[in-house]
């Protein structure tokens, strides 16, 4: 086979790429603070009089060469330091929603990290009111159904998480669930048993990051101790056949973030990512962007690069989009409508001319 032919075969076809871009989808693993682009960070720093340890947008972007989760988190928290007012939180979320619409995201569940802000003296109300306003406007003006999930920072103590949940109680109608993020290793789910029990008592939905860098035991813990209904990342699950069997049997979704996994060196290359195997094993895996401003792309970029690297096809596209809707916390009727919309998209694209 000539080199030219080989090259053509390895390229994602334009038709499939366009199809993936236009496909209706849900995004279930996006940290809104991780959507803050360097340009917006500098704009906010200027209007809020915050000085940054980077001379320019380019210098900041150049610092996005991470070796693991912690090296990313250090820059992530520096970037978030420019967020001070309700307008800042609104602007950040609105910029994400514009990107999401361009990628044909019709349902989005956004993580936010209140402790990153309250520990800097920014009131909880400022954070949630700014984000909530963007959620409302996205529904009205962009046709995106969105909701918020409050994440506890797992490198902090459970008492701090409990205090955050207490602060959040007056705003309980403005977020639908709680999650657990930040540095995973050394911070197992068991550390947060009490705060998640309280969240469940309040009727909140439960998710948790587990099995990104951490072992399968952290996924078991997220399920059994925290009551997680969905696992964020979960790519380490394949190391434990009994766990895989349970995740499949109980239809527990995994919100996988391929480009993030490469940037943070969870897999050496995208071609070595286990997404295809997760799908082949019958797991409810989805594609998401995690922290798109830092990890090299929004959700469609994740789809395109992963499809190319793993040579995925239309069948995978359908499974992944279906999984994204099924795994969401939308109501049963909303999920039905989303799935019908997906079927219509496939039918319309492949209708005989
Ligand atoms: Zn994440």
From TrEMBL:
Segments passing through the bilayer: none
Keywords: Hydrolase, Metal-binding, Nucleotide metabolism, Zinc
Details of cofactor binding: Binds 1 zinc ion per subunit.
Catalytic activity: adenine + H2O + H(+) = hypoxanthine + NH4(+)
Stored SUPFAM superfamilies: Metallo-dependent hydrolases
EC number(s) recorded for this UniProt protein: 3.5.4.2
Function, as annotated: Catalyzes the hydrolytic deamination of adenine to hypoxanthine. Plays an important role in the purine salvage pathway and in nitrogen catabolism.
Family label: Belongs to the metallo-dependent hydrolases superfamily. Adenosine and AMP deaminases family. Adenine deaminase type 2 subfamily.
Name of the protein in its database record: Adenine deaminase
The species this protein was found in: Tahibacter amnicola
């Amino acid at each position: 086979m000539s080199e030219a032919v080989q090259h053509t075969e390895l390229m994602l076809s334009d038709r499939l790429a366009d199809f993936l871009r236009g496909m209706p989808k849900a995004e279930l693993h996006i940290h809104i603070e991780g959507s803050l682009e360097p340009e917006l960070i500098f704009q906010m720093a200027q209007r809020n009089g915050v000085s940054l340890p980077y001379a320019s947008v380019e210098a900041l972007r150049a610092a996005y060469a991470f070796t693991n989760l912690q090296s990313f988190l250090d820059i992530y928290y520096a970037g978030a330091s420019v967020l001070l007012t309700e307008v800042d939180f609104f602007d950040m979320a609105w910029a994400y929603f514009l990107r999401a619409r361009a990628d044909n995201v019709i349902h989005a569940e956004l993580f936010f990290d209140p402790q990153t802000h309250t520990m800097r003296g920014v009131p909880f109300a400022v954070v949630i009111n700014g984000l909530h306003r963007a959620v409302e406007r996205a529904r009205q003006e962009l046709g995106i159904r969105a909701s918020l999930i409050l994440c506890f920072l797992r490198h902090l103590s459970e008492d701090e998480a409990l205090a955050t949940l207490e602060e959040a109680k007056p705003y309980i109608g403005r977020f639908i669930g709680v999650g657990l993020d930040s540095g995973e290793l050394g911070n197992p789910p068991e550390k947060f048993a009490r705060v998640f029990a309280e969240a469940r008592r309040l009727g909140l939905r439960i998710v948790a990051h587990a099995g990104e860098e951490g072992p399968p035991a952290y996924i078991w813990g997220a399920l059994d101790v925290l009551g997680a209904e969905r696992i964020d990342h979960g790519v380490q699950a394949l190391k434990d056949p009994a766990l895989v069997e349970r995740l499949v049997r109980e239809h527990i979704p995994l919100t996988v973030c391929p480009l993030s996994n490469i940037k943070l060196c969870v897999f050496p290359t995208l071609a070595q990512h286990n997404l295809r195997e997760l799908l082949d094993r019958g797991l409810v895996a989805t594609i998401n962007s995690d922290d798109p401003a830092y990890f090299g792309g929004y959700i469609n970029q994740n789809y395109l690069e992963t499809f190319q690297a793993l040579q995925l096809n239309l069948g995978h596209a359908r499974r992944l989009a279906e999984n994204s809707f099924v795994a969401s916390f939308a109501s049963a009727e909303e999920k039905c409508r989303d799935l019908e919309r997906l079927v219509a998209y496939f039918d319309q694209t492949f209708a005989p001319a």
